[in-house]
Amino acid sequence: MEQVVGIETPEFGFLNGRDCIYIESVTQDNYDNLVFRGKINVRLASKIRCAAFHPYELTFHRVLACFSCELDTYENLDRCAHLDDTDFNVVENSKWLENLPVRSDFDKSVYRHFQVFTYDVVYNIIAVSYDMKKA
Length: 135
Hints:
By secondary structure, the protein is mainly β. It has helices spanning 71-76, 95-99, and strands spanning 3-6, 21-28, 34-41, 53-61, 65-70, 88-92, 112-117, 121-127, 129-134.
């Protein structure tokens, strides 16, 4: 059974709230990295609690698949309800990852299913790893 688990980031802690993660740009490079840049509303982060926005860079490494959807539409999908928990998650026992028809030379066991909930858009990403830092 799928289980959504919040990710505690080293810099900000857990991120929670529709106004928490803002994205200014998303880029994908030739090495299958997907890079999000924007600002975190740290009033809604568990480690830093001040009235400020901090720039961040979130990179997903060896991206295999990415799906984005407008937030309210995503929440209306039967199987994709946003739990009122954290906005940066890993989906354990992901049905999407399990059913993804990858190439025969790819090892699916090294991939993970991540979710990023922003103010307007939800991203579901299948990647090997991620790193997040203050920019």
